[in-house]
Amino acid sequence: VLLLKVLALGYRGAGRSKYAHETMSLIHNLVHVWPKPLRDIVLKNWLVNPTGKPDSWLPVDLMQEHINYWVKVVYKAHGSNASFEWLKTITPCIDFLRQLATQINQELGSRQGSKHSSPDLWRDITTLMRSLHEHSVYIQQDGRVIEDEKGAVPNIVARGLEALHKPLQEYNEAFVTAKIRRRNKPL
């Protein structure tokens, strides 16, 4: 939770106010709203390992993006195939179908077209290394200054802390408003 607080300040200091607000909401729920069992579930499930292989962890949101890709691109869930019935049928099967496709490809050989050779990055890396060397990026040079009006890299966490008062006040007001709305009985 401590890291989330630093991250919220960094978002605020970098001008990413929506990310800062969402992070503050998450912190609030973790610390003040959710019961300990739910808090533990959230904190212990940031990552998933869909393959079961060592060091193959993914953030949950990235895994969801992978599932979205398979649903939309591979199983063509767009246009007339985007019905809720189709999505309800195919989505729970995505991981199994992906594994099945991989296994069939392995059994029949890599000539089936789902595997590609790794791109040759030698030229790109050489160009990058040359540029880093030309500009002495990783070489300490006395007297080198940042070409900026202030001449320093901003500390976005400190900047976020300085700018926190008003957004925190707005967050608390929005929280109170939401709390009152939830108490109102629906029509």
Topology:
Blueprint: H1 2-13, H2 17-33, H3 36-43, E1 47-48, E2 58-59, H4 60-74, H5 84-90, H6 94-108, H7 122-134, H8 156-162, H9 165-183
Antiparallel strand pairs: 1-2
Helix pairs in contact: 1-2, 1-8
Structure description:
The chain is mostly helical. Strands 1-2 form a two-stranded antiparallel ribbon. It is flat.
Unreliable stretches (pLDDT < 50, length at least 5) are none
Strand order of the largest sheet: 1-2
Question: What fraction of the residues are assigned to beta strands by DSSP?
Answer: under 5%
Q: Find the count of extended strands (DSSP E, 2+ residues).
A: 2
Whole-number mean pLDDT? 83
Distance between the termini: 38 Å
> Biggest sheet, open or closed, and with what strands and sense?
2 strands, antiparallel
Shape: flat
Number of DSSP helical runs: 9
Gyration radius from CA atoms, angstroms: 24 Å
Q: Into which percent range does the helicity of residues fall? A: 55-70%
| Topology as a string of helices (H) and strands (E) | HHHEEHHHHHH
Helix/strand/pairing category: mainly alpha
Question: How do you describe this structure in short?
Answer:
With 187 residues, the chain is an all-alpha fold.
Provide tags for this entry.
187 residues, mainly alpha, two-stranded antiparallel ribbon, 9 helices, 60% helix
